[in-house]
Amino acid sequence: MRVDLNLLRLLLAVYDTGSVTAAAAQLKLSQPTASAALARLRHSFGDPLFIRHAGVMSPTPRAQNLIDKTREVIGLIDSEILRSPDFDPEVATDEFVFCLSAIGEIVFLPTLFDFLKKAAPNTRIRSVSLPPHKLEEALISGEVDLVLGYYPDIKESDVFQQRLFSHDLTCMVRTGHKIKGPRMTLKQFTEAEHAFVKDGGRSQEMFEAELVARKIERKIVLRTSHYMSIPTIIARSDLVVVLPRPVANAFAGAKNVRVISAPMEIPKYDLKMHWHRRFHKDPKIVWLRSAVTSLFTEHPGSAG
Question: Could you tell me the pTM of the whole model?
């Protein structure tokens, strides 16, 4: 026996109202539609279910036995299956997992931490760094909630993206460096010795491609995979280093270093938020995307 869920709703409505007409109005059906549905119910159960008596549709014993269980089933379906789940940040105990590069942690993590600990005080925050070929797998599996930053390798059509803001690159030298002023010349740039940071982010690769396109060569005498030693090294040498602007700004407060513009216009690059189609309507991810959008879209001073 196959019974349409809506037929069970009609069973309850007729029982509660004692009238097919009133039940039809309650369910926003026409009276003929409700009567036809009741006929299908009677056929399915092999029982009249309701008998008109004194102007009221009175349940048969078969219908009476069905009511409590039917009400329980319909209530469960409405409350646990059909109801759109909500995400309440004030009581949530979830863990938010972001994929961030080293630069991304500087740009995003402090602001995210401050916001989430206020808006969702019982949640936990985790930042991970993954190679490009593992990003899409991490998103589809739910291992990572959002990827934030400059990730041009993410091209899968099932991974959605939203631009947040743009960044650029700038240079840093020691305060007493022979290169003076707010911008160095191309001659100064090519004659200087350079430190090069390759931390796994893609912005430096973009800059390297720009130098190749312009046929500009620089003298790299120090290569490193980390930014943390850079302020100390720059402060003690005559090296020039090219850094993402937020990193340079963060280090600008260090003793004996200053930010200086490169001689050429360096293309800006977009920082984006990425998530998988599978979680597009998930209440937690919807709320989290909205929070990130409000915090970082066209972030003040993001490119300057």
Answer: 0.66
